[in-house]
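Dear H.,

Thanks for agreeing to be a second pair of eyes. The structure we're designing against is below in token form, covering all 172 positions.
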């Protein structure tokens, strides 16, 4: 959004007026010292980012006046012209919104019970409530329920097994 100041100039609140970005910079600027030396003639440099693969750089100045001077006069080096412009302000990256979670995935995770439940759409919540928890399987021979196996091994026995060297592929 652009606003007009009392002195008649337009300000765009999407731009950072204390920094400039440059594209199609000369090869000499791939040496950071040369580039910093060129841009330091316009004011005190607060930060400098060089992107050599893209032939781009960003220069952060302490004052808006320094950035404006660099914008006006900094686009030429040894008779080589390159593009200079105010750096756009960084917009925060959109966060993953909980509503964007796939309903089927969320229902499956909640059914497993090991994942915390996040807020979901009402339709998803209804789906989750309809999921039936299956009982443990029943042994056909004597009709008894087969539950989780009893924990008969002690920690010491398990640690001893784990510490044994695996010499065969079967052991591994």
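And this is the sequence the design step returned. I haven't edited it by hand at all.
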């Amino acid at each position: 959004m652009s606003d007009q100041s009392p002195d008649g100039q337009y300000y765009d609140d999407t731009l950072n007026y204390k920094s400039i970005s440059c594209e199609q910079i000369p090869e000499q600027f791939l040496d950071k010292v040369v580039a910093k030396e060129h841009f330091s003639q316009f004011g005190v440099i607060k930060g400098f980012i060089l992107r050599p693969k893209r032939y781009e750089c960003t220069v952060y100045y302490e004052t808006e006046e320094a950035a404006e001077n660099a914008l006006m006069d900094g686009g030429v080096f040894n008779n080589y012209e390159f593009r200079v412009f105010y750096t756009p302000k960084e917009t925060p990256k959109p966060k993953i919104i909980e509503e964007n979670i796939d309903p089927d995935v969320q229902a499956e995770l909640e059914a497993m019970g090991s994942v915390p439940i996040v807020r979901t759409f009402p339709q998803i919540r209804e789906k989750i409530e309809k999921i039936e928890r299956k009982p443990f399987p029943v042994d056909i021979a004597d009709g008894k329920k087969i539950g989780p196996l009893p924990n008969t091994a002690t920690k010491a026995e398990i640690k001893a097994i784990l510490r044994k060297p695996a010499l065969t592929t079967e052991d591994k």
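Two observations from my side: The first helix runs from residue 32 to 40. The helical segments are 32-40, 64-73, 103-112, 122-130, 155-163.

Warmly,
E.
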